[in-house]
């Protein structure tokens, strides 16, 4: 295994892979700050369940909508330069939060600015995997995508900082912290040479007019949307449902988010071998089963924690599986297709806090929010099994593996 990994690293530019991972990790950490600090924020503004859902969903929606413009920019100024532009904007956004967030409306505006950090996904994956050959892109994207671990870091670190210094001060810490991946990016990363031309705008949006583009986007709305939506919402769920402390709510969420981030690498790796379609089939079944079980386990903290960790493991593996398939389907436009799929797919994450908040406010329980998302998983499973009949006769081997050269 160690020999395989050394061979993998030598097949591409590993410093750029690391820089992309670090950039994505810090971006994810900052993207979910409001979710990590939600119990503190809710106490300050005395928010209703529906208001909590709205507050938590805005950064997700904003991040999703900003992904495609950043992907478009990266095609013209280069992916490395695009990451530096974005990180500079993130620093400015964090300073806004530190100096100007005084009311609930200010907080909603801050949610839009947090979305800047959520735009990093497609560019990070394309930058990190750009120098690797097709047979290793699934693993390379999985390693960069494991930067989702930033969500675990956020829910672990932000609550103690908020408790010690006040939650507004955490934005100031984030403004300083983003300088770390900026320096690493400048010093170690280089622009990959896998893109030999600039795509036209028509080519950029081409996947919107293809069934495959929508299929991947909808599946990703369940896998990544579920990951980021649940990671954002879980501190509130643990705090409200089980009356744990604000810091403990973050620690419990960290366990799940870490599993999701770690298993993304496994999802990319196993999809290279068994096929992305086969991996996604198992993933969607596990997601649906665990979410239904979570709905019934709302009286047991231990059972809920174990079920959520299993669900996040499947979500993480599913994210890796989706982006093992994307470069096979769009080999010359991976960055663009990835940004578009990431944008549309991440919108699904914004549904999760809203569905949970509305379920609690109008049905008196979070159970129906879990059931709603489980049903979406099963619908995506049916669509996947139908679509793969054509995929494995055109651009992929049986099960969703890469075709031999």
The number of distinct β-strands equals 0
**Average of pLDDT:** 91
Based on the structure given, which CATH architecture is correct? Up-down Bundle
| CATH superfamily placement | MFS general substrate transporter like domains
Alpha-beta classification: mainly alpha
The top-level CATH class is Mainly Alpha
Query: How many helix segments?
Result: 19
SSE string, helices as H and strands as E:
HHHHHHHHHHHHHHHHHHH
The Cα radius of gyration reads 20 Å
Low-confidence stretches: none
- Beta-strand share of residues: under 5%
Major β-sheet profile: none
Coarse morphology: globular
Kindly report the CATH topology.
Answer: Growth Hormone, Chain: A
Head-to-tail CA distance between termini: 24 Å
Q: Give the count of structural domains.
A: 1
Helicity range:
over 70%
Task: Give your account of this protein's structure.
With 405 residues, the protein is mainly α. It has one domain: MFS general substrate transporter like domains (Growth Hormone, Chain: A, Up-down Bundle). The protein is built from 19 helices and no strands.
Secondary-structure blueprint of this entry?
Layout: H1 2-10, H2 14-31, H3 33-36, H4 38-45, H5 49-77, H6 79-100, H7 104-118, H8 121-129, H9 134-145, H10 149-165, H11 167-177, H12 179-188, H13 201-204, H14 211-242, H15 246-274, H16 276-296, H17 301-329, H18 334-363, H19 367-394
Helix pairs in contact: 2-7, 2-8, 2-9, 2-10, 2-12, 5-6, 5-7, 5-14, 5-18, 6-7, 6-8, 6-11, 6-12, 8-9, 8-18, 9-15, 9-17, 10-11, 10-15, 14-15, 14-17, 14-18, 14-19, 15-16, 15-17, 16-17, 16-19, 18-19
């Amino acid at each position: 295994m160690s020999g395989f990994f050394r061979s993998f690293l030598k097949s591409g530019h590993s410093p750029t892979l690391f820089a992309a991972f670090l950039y994505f990790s810090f971006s994810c950490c900052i993207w979910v700050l409001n979710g990590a600090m939600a119990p503190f924020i809710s106490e300050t503004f005395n928010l209703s369940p529906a208001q909590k859902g709205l507050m938590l969903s805005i950064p997700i929606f904003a991040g999703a909508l900003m992904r495609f413009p950043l992907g478009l920019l990266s095609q013209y100024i280069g992916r490395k330069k695009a990451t530096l532009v974005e990180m500079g904007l993130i620093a400015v956004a964090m300073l806004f939060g530190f100096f100007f967030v005084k009311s609930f409306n200010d907080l909603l505006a801050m949610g839009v600015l947090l979305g800047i950090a959520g735009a990093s996904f497609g560019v990070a994956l394309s930058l990190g995997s750009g120098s690797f050959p097709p047979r290793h892109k699934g693993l390379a994207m999985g390693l960069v995508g494991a930067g989702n671990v930033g969500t675990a870091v956020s829910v672990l670190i932000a609550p103690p900082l908020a408790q010690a210094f006040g939650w507004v001060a955490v934005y100031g810490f984030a403004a300083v912290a983003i300088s770390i991946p900026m320096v690493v990016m400048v010093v170690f990363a280089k622009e990959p040479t896998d893109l030999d031309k600039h795509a036209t705008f028509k080519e950029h949006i081409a996947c919107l007019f293809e069934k495959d583009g929508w299929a991947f986007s909808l599946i990703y709305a369940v896998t990544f949307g579920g990951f980021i939506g649940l990671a954002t919402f879980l501190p509130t769920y643990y705090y409200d449902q089980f009356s744990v402390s604000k810091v403990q709510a973050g620690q419990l969420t960290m366990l799940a988010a870490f599993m999701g981030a770690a298993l993304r690498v496994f999802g990319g790796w196993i999809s290279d071998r068994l096929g992305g379609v086969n991996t996604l089939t198992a993933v969607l079944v596990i997601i649906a089963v665990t979410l239904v079980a979570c709905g019934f386990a709302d009286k047991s903290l231990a059972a809920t924690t174990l079920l959520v960790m299993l669900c996040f493991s499947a979500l993480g593996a599913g994210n890796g599986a989706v982006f093992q398939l994307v470069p096979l389907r769009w080999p010359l436009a991976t960055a663009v297709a990835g940004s578009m799929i990431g944008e549309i797919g991440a919108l699904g994450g914004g549904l999760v806090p809203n569905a949970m908040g509305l379920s609690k406010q109008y049905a008196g329980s979070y159970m129906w929010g879990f059931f709603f998302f489980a049903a979406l998983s099963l619908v995506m499973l049916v669509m996947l099994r139908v679509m793969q009949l054509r995929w494995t006769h055109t651009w992929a081997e049986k099960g969703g593996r890469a075709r031999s050269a």
